[in-house]
Amino acid sequence: MPFGSHLAMTLGFFGGILPSVILVFYTLFPYEGYYKDKHFFFLLVIGLIGGTFTAVLYYWSAGYIISSGPLLSFILIIICFAVFEMLLFTIILSMERFGGKFDLTYYGVVLGGTVAGVIGMFNIYVFFTAYDPSWQAVLSIALMIPTLPLLYLSLSSMIGFGLFKHKFSKYAGWMVLYKIIFNLVFLQWYIGYLFLPPEHGWEWMVICFIFAVIIYRYSRTDLLPAALPEKLKKHRRRKRRQDKQKH
After folding, report:
1. Side-chain half-sphere CA neighbours of 38 within 13 A
2. Where are any strands of DSSP class E within 196-242?
3. Would you call 114 helix, strand, or coil by DSSP?
4. What is the chain's percent helix, strand, coil content, to nearest 5?
5. Minimal CB count within 10 Å: which of 100, 115, 189, 228?
6. Where do the domains of the chain lie?
7. Sequence-separated (6 or more) residues with CB below 8 Å from residue 11
8. pLDDT tens by residue, 119-150
């Protein structure tokens, strides 16, 4: 029997938004002090709004794909989603209040992670209010919980980095390409589990999770450290040495 709306919403919050925010804090912990808290919390709110709009758009488009059927529609929607999310991140991170500085990369982490949290919450809520939670569904939802924030905060940080380095075309292009590849697999799972729940299908989410981890590792080990100006890199190394000496 499907869950009640209150229980499903609670599960959605603890399985969607909360893990995403925790991952954002974990990712940015080494860079604490290199971005402004007021911008951080502002983007948390903006991300909730942007995530809500994106989640509804995904839900509406998935229903359209099922009703229309043609492969061309599926491919076009995948491309349009990738471009839409790139534009969403770009428009928000290009706001004058952020100043186009190095910390745009870190604000991208906040924005992408929050957007992913709302999408995850929406998916959990819709599924558990519509269907009996089979073990396959629970497994795939459990895999989805880290997958979305891992991917979205990484892709959004790419946009922030590209804007800061004045290499927007390069990083926006990579973001769109990565999102198209991800959506080719993710929408197979999304359509099935929200509209036509199969007996199996969690394998799609395993692929999505592995892909998201690879992109996250690149963002965390390459982009985020590279965003710091050389002067701040030296300050960070000096601070690390001091912290080690204290312990």
Report:
1. 2
2. none
3. helix
4. 85, 0, 15
5. 100
6. 5-246
7. 3, 124, 125, 128
8. 999 988 887 776 666 777 788 888 999 999 99
